[in-house]
Amino acid sequence: MNPKKLVRKVLPKQGITAAEEAYRKGRIKLTQARYGYPARGARVIAVTGTNGKTTTCVLINSVLKAGGYKTALITTALTEMDGVATSNTNHRTVPLTADLMKFFKEAKTKGVDFIIMETTSQALHQHKMTGLPVEIAVMTNLTQDHLDYHGSMDAYAAAKARLFNKYMHPGHCVLNRDDEWYDYFAKQAVGTVTTYGQDAASDLQITDLKLTASGNDFTLAVDGDKAAVHTELSGLFNVYNAAAAATVGALLELPDEAIDQGLSGLEAVPGRMEAIKAGQDFEVIVDYAHTPDALKNVLTALKAVSKGKVSIVFGATGDRDKGKRPIMGEVVAGIADHIYLTDDETYTEDPAAIRDAVYAGITKAGGAGKTTIVEDRRDAIAKAFSEAKKGDTVLLAGIGHQDYRAMAGKNIEWDEREVARELLSR
Fold first, then answer.
1. Could you tell me if residue 32 is left (phi over 0), alpha (psi between -120 and 50 degrees) or otherwise beta?
2. Are 334 and 239 in a shared domain?
């Protein structure tokens, strides 16, 4: 593959004072110096976006390994160093600077070729990425999330844009041509721009889509050449994640065979459309979806392949973007056959108030009649399982890979996958 290249540039804009900028940057540079600037000379691939970051990072990691590269990986769900994967127990997408420098130092010691990083808007806004040499910056999509932190979609987009503009100054920018924020990020980008998507103007165009419960097949067309791609990860959104990873592989001039091998060889990502099988005659899927767009994507994908009805157990997070709660309710009510509204992570908020906000959206969309409210999440999952029929699908959304929940100001042990297996075994 030999994608076309475009170059555009613009200056970044962030809503914090110059003094705050200098203070944050100074602290991070001091920490980097203490560890001997281990990021210098590293080749970093950074992925940002609202949804799909973890999966895209894991897919890129798989593609690069298939291409013969030695890699290191940092995501919300897991980390990997030279082929040895571990769960991300601190649940920080981008680690504290000291931990990050230790990671880079170990990567340098082990002779890693590429470090693949999941990158959040908060980390970019707080300068956690300062000084990291980003060779390829990847954008998945931008939809509503984190407005409690950023205040508006424009500020949220501006924080994400730091990965692509003069602030981080990447060599290559990989953008989703079909995303509604594409034009904004294309104008922000200072590196060579390469796009993926179904749009005919995409440098890597997605065509010949075949979506099934057991995975996806599609074609990537590049300058008249076509390459067949298969992924075990189902859902249209995973086609885009795979296409983003393929674009990175193309930029690194990997053979088509290596790209397809890397994409097809990945069977699952922790807490992302993860199937739980315990002998039951209905499907159980655990997914991290916690935004309106993510819920829409996952539910739509499951509706397309489920043999029966699709139910969802979900809630909204406390102390976070309150504006998205009723929107989440509307989205779910418009797609799911039955809804079990429960608690997600309440943090320090009143659980009833969170549920009420979500339920307002469900009611607005006419979904009250198919909704059951169960305060306790374990009881809600148990009820969903008890009412599921043969061939149905039950989606457990919001917690995903996590091994705890933040409830009433405390962290309680909670592994959604293990809870599901325990209840199914009964």
1. alpha
2. no
pLDDT at 12 over 90: no
Count: domains in the chain: 2
Residue at a domain's end among 235, 264, 293: 264
Rounded Cα–Cα distance for residues 240 and 219 (Å): 12
Q: Is residue 1 part of a domain?
A: no
Task: Write the CA distances from 108 to 44, 97, 374, integer angstroms.
Answer: 12, 16, 50
278 in the same domain as 220: no
Indicate whether 204 belongs to any domain.
yes
Looking at residues 319-345, what average pLDDT do you find?
Answer: 96
Write the DSSP string, 89-149. TT--SS--HHHHHHHHHHHHHTT-SEEEEE--HHHHHTTTTTT--EEEEEE----S--HHH
Mean pLDDT to the nearest integer, 336-352? 96
Regarding whether 342 and 251 lie in a shared domain, the answer is: no
Stretch (H or E) spanning 302: helix 292-305
Q: Tell me if 38 is assigned to some domain.
A: yes
Q: How far apart are CA 254 and CA 66, in angstroms?
A: 9
Quote the tokens at residue 84.
């040895």
Q: What token pair was written down for 410?
A: 């405390």
Longest distance between any two alpha carbons in the chain, whole Å: 61
Of 217, 236, 264, the residue at which a domain comes to its end is 264
Which residue intervals of 151-229 are DSSP H helices? 153-161, 182-188
Q: Domain residues for 251?
A: 6-264
Residues whose CB is less than 8 angstroms from the CB of residue 48 and which lie 6 or more positions away in sequence, other chains included:
118, 119, 120, 121, 124, 137, 138, 139, 140, 160, 163
The DSSP annotation for 367-379 comes to -GGGEEE-SSHHH
Tokens of 305: 């392949």
Among the listed residues 158, 178, 140, the one whose alpha carbon sits nearest the alpha carbon of residue 12: 158
One-letter identity of residue 287: D
Cα-flanking dihedrals φ and ψ of residue 207, to 5°?
-135, 175
| pLDDT tens-digit series, residues 187-204 | 999 989 999 999 999 999
Of residues 236, 119, 218, the one with CA closest to residue 174: 119
pTM across the whole model? 0.84
